[in-house]
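Write out the 3D structure for:
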Amino acid sequence: MHWARILILLCTLVEAGWMALDGSRALIVGDFITPRSGPYAGQVGPWRHLVRRVGLDPRGTLMMGIFAVYGWGWLLVAVAFGLGAPWAWGAMLVAAAGALWFLPFGTLCSILQIVLLLTLRGRLR
């Protein structure tokens, strides 16, 4: 397996895996995982500002569902990408672009994935 495919899958596992875990947990227990102490105690990530601007409650059930569905769906796409499904390259590109709002760490992971997918397109398809 090409090194870039492995790096893309690792980034996806971290980013989409966190979204799936945090969103699913939030739907079950009623809130996202947040820091317990320090200056950001009890706060969700900086993505909350973007979500509020589009009119969604960052801690609402809809946002929890978006996290869970997006994360699990992206993980399924990652499995197909890892197995070499011909449609999965494009789906991975769309999924990474769709998560650019997930500030700050998710944005960095998504940018890395997009750059690798586009730069090494011929080797990864």
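Helices lie at 3-29, 47-53, 61-82, 88-98, 105-119, 121-124.
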